[in-house]
Design brief:
Shape: globular
CATH class: Alpha Beta
Largest sheet: 11 strands, mixed
CATH topology: DHBP synthase
Strand content: 15-25%
Helix content: 25-40%
Radius of gyration: 16 Å
Structural class: alpha/beta
Length: 200
C-alpha cells in the first residue's frame, strides 16, 4: 500500500488515472475512491469494502463544472450547491443521458459531493473526471476517521493519503429530485439551514 503525503498531489492523481483505489481524508470522514470511467477499479473498490451491489457509490469532484456531462442540476439543487459546497453535503440529482448507468447500479440518479478538503480538491483538480467515492470502511462498520483506522479495515487498498478529518461525521444527504429538498441522512448541515438558503 502506497502512503502519500500532501506534497504528492500529481502522483496521486496519476495513480487514480491508472485505476488505483485510494483512501484519503475528507472534511467529514476518511473516504475511498476510484476514477469514474474505470469499471474494473470501481468493482475493486466495492470488493475491498464488501459493498452490496444494491448501494451505488457516490461521485466526488472539486467543482460543479466537472459534473456537467453526467448530472442535471435543478435550480433548487444549484442554489443549495452554491450555498454549501464545498462542504459536508451530498446532493441526490438526476443523471444525464451521457452518464454510464453501469457506474450507478442502473439507477437514474447519482449522489454528488464537493468536500471542503484542500489537498483532496487539488488532487481532483488534476483529473478530467469525477471520482467514485464511498466512506473508507467495510460496509456496515463505522466510517474510518483516521489513516490508521482506514488501513486496518481496508487492507487491499492501492494507496492512502495522510491527513485529518474535521467534522468527524458523515455528510448530510439531501434529495434534490423532487419539488422540495428531503434529508435522507442527517449530518453537519441541517434541513433548517438548507430551507433558509433557499428562501434567500
Amino acid at each position: 500500500m502506497k502512503e502519500y503525503q500532501e506534497s504528492q498531489i500529481k502522483e496521486m492523481a496519476e495513480d487514480f488515472q491508472q485505476g488505483a483505489v485510494i483512501a484519503f481524508p475528507t472534511d467529514t470522514v476518511y473516504g475511498v475512491g476510484s476514477i469514474y470511467g474505470d469499471l474494473d477499479a470501481l468493482n475493486r473498490l466495492k470488493m475491498i469494502k464488501h459493498r452490496p451491489e444494491t448501494k451505488p457509490i457516490p461521485m466526488m469532484a472539486s467543482r460543479l463544472e466537472t459534473y456537467a456531462p453526467y448530472v442535471k442540476l435543478s435550480p433548487m439543487a444549484q442554489k443549495i450547491a452554491d450555498a454549501f459546497l464545498p462542504g459536508p453535503l451530498t446532493l441526490i440529482v438526476e443523471l444525464t443521458d451521457f452518464a454510464n448507468r453501469d457506474f450507478f447500479n442502473g439507477k437514474s440518479t447519482a449522489a454528488i459531493r464537493i468536500p471542503n478538503a484542500p489537498t483532496l480538491l487539488k488532487v481532483m483538480d488534476c483529473l478530467d473526471r469525477p471520482l467514485m467515492v464511498s466512506s473508507a470502511n467495510v460496509s456496515g462498520e463505522p466510517a474510518a476517521l483516521t489513516k490508521q483506522e482506514a488501513m486496518a479495515m481496508l487492507k487491499e487498498l492501492d494507496g492512502i493519503l495522510d491527513g485529518t478529518c474535521h467534522e468527524l461525521q458523515a455528510s448530510t444527504i439531501v434529495d434534490c429530485t423532487q419539488d422540495k429538498p428531503k434529508i435522507l441522512r442527517e449530518g453537519p448541515i441541517t434541513l433548517a439551514q438548507i430551507e433558509a438558503a433557499l428562501e434567500k
